[in-house]
Amino acid sequence: MERKVIAEGKTTNEAIENGLKELNVSRNKVDVKVLENEEKRSFFSILAPRVVKVELTVKDEKENSKTEIKPKKIVELTIEEQQKAEQNMQNFLKDFVKTLPEGTEYEIQKTVTGLNVNISSKNLGYLIGYRGETLYALQNIMTAVAGKNIDNKVRVILDIEGYKAKREKTLEELAEKVAKTVIRTKKPIKLEPMKAYERKIIHSVLQKNSKIDTTSVGEEPYRRIVISLKNN
Q: Most buried pick, 1, 67, 95, 157, via CB within 10 A?
């Protein structure tokens, strides 16, 4: 079913912003039609409050989990490339762990697309950072290190103290809790901005819920999920 809304404001931009808030979508996701322009006012309406009306129509109602989870083309590494990537990472981690608390251990696992790296110790929270920001920055560095002198892209997946498993469980619980609230109140809820892999977790969990829709709105790095009731 096509989603559209008529919104008002003192200016065209204000009217559009009001419509976007009501639809819970970003500007590039709608078509805008000006119904009443502030510049086209008659002499008799000059004393009346200035009102601009616009009609906003969502371009693609299905910007949801199917779009988010669309698989990317997988580039497989040769055995030689996997070994080279592992050696690059070994050389890096030998020096890196010397800067970490005593007893810190690491594990490297080769995969057809790159490496899985796990670092374990106590008190490594500073390497994880708020919502994993430091962890992902370090993962990007490791990706560059592992791919040195390798033609194909090497994908490095880093985890520290099992953070990702804990975060996934937290997001799954959040998804279920918010879905229940949406069903009870019949009002959509917009979550805070999340990374793409975190949004996929939310989408995947709620795909099974026949009463709930999940839609991603906004631009990176502020892209977020809106959880709402399905229009049956």
A: 157
